[in-house]
């Protein structure tokens, strides 16, 4: 017998890192350990609740303008959404409509395969090498589109602009999305290449380097035709994705560049210090250009370290997935938080 259950869309959802209710040392979802700019706090206090009566600007013009000015583009080159997850999902819907499979690395942000399934997009994964590096030549074949994060997650490895350019040169007929969620932590952005390659879409977020994961703001920059196509899809789906407060406060954050640069540098410095201390404890790791480290221990199993740390109220991320099930992804917190991590690890190991 047929039931309504036969018509339910069956998806295996992405599983986000835990958000524990009690206070713990939280190094599991790559949030920024520092609060957003004091300008954001000021803006929140000056926020006029009266405006909530009205629908927000569906074009998100003010925020797009601030971002365009900051990066040296026109507002028509900028698309904003509810975190980069929303932006990327919208980009999948907009650009990945071929019968040919889209390509992404086998070890990467695990949301890509979920969106592909949700939107019924065929995909193939491309294996990274034994050092977790993307093999660019393996992307030089017929496909329906390409997406990868740079730096890659969870490996933290960042490729050069020339490397990305090679992938673009060999994929002129499809849209290539570069997910730069972690680019501000020492990598080289390919934003400038969007002027040269009309098929390149670069996605960034306020959630990591800009300390605003809770506000949900992400954006894409690309040539005007790409951005127009994304807006056509957005306006066919939900005209008002961005709420009034996000539109207003996001712009204020971007204007405080000094604070943004200062906190980002601090995280990079903490990362480099933490690497050395982890090495002394017998850990190995990739060359991270992100706000997290991807580590494995010479003798103790990652899963056991993960569980032992949790007992001590220190949360890191463990993925029970092929090839990476002996690795941990550890977010860079404050210096004090990393001190606690090292102390705890000394007790565990
Ligand atoms: C964190 C992350 C995102 C999504 O971040 P939002 O909070 O939705 O902006 C996208 N891609 C990668 C690789 C990430 O790690």
Write up what this structure looks like:
The protein has 349 residues and is an alpha/beta fold. The protein folds into two domains: 3-36 and 258-348, Aspartate Aminotransferase, domain 1 (Alpha-Beta Complex), CATH 3.90.1150; 50-256, 3-Layer(aba) Sandwich (Aspartate Aminotransferase, domain 2). The chain contains ten helices and 13 strands. A seven-stranded mixed beta sheet has the order 2-8-7-6-5-3-4, with helices on both faces. α1 (38-45) packs antiparallel against α7, α2 (61-71) runs parallel beside α7 (244-255) and α3 (83-95) packs across α6 (224-234). The relative contact order is 0.17. The mean pLDDT is 97. Bound molecules: pyridoxal-5'-phosphate. Residues 30, 83-85, 109, 149, 153, 179, 181, 205, 207, 213, 218 line the site of pyridoxal-5'-phosphate (PLP).
In short:
The chain is 34% helix and 14% strand. It contains ten helices and 13 strands. Helix 4 links the parallel strand 3 and strand 4.
């Amino acid at each position: 017998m047929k039931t309504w259950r036969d018509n339910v869309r069956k998806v295996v959802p992405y599983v986000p890192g835990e958000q524990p209710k009690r206070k713990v040392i939280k190094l599991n979802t790559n949030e920024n350990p520092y609060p957003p700019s004091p300008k954001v706090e000021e803006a929140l206090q000056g926020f006029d609740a009266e405006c909530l009566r009205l629908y927000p600007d569906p074009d998100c013009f003010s925020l797009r303008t601030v971002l365009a000015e900051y990066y040296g583009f026109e507002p028509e080159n900028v698309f904003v959404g509810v975190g980069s997850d929303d932006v990327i999902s919208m980009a999948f819907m907009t650009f990945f409509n071929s019968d040919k499979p889209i390509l992404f690395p086998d070890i990467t942000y695990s949301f890509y395969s979920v969106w592909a399934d949700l939107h019924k997009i065929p995909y193939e994964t491309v294996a990274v090498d034994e050092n977790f590096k993307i093999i660019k030549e393996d992307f030089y074949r017929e496909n329906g589109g390409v997406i990868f994060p740079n730096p890659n997650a969870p490996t933290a490895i960042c490729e050069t602009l020339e490397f990305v350019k090679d992938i673009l040169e060999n994929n002129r007929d499809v849209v290539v999305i570069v997910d730069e969620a972690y680019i501000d932590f020492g990598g080289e952005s390919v934003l400038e290449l969007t002027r040269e390659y009309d098929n390149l879409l670069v996605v960034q977020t306020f959630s990591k380097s800009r300390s605003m994961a809770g506000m949900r703001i992400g954006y894409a920059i690309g040539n005007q035709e790409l951005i127009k196509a994304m807006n056509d899809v957005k306006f066919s789906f939900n005209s008002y994705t961005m709420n009034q407060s996000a539109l207003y406060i996001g712009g204020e954050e971007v204007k405080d560049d000094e604070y943004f640069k200062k906190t980002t540098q601090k995280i990079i410095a903490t990362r480099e210090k933490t690497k050395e201390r982890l090495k002394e404890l017998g850990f190995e790791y990739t060359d991270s250009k992100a706000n997290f480290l991807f580590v494995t221990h010479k003798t103790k199993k990652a899963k056991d370290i993960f569980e032992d740390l949790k007992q001590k109220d220190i949360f890191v991320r463990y993925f029970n997935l092929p090839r990476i099930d002996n690795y941990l992804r550890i977010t860079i917190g404050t210096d004090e938080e990393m001190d606690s991590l090292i102390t705890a690890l000394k007790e565990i190991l």
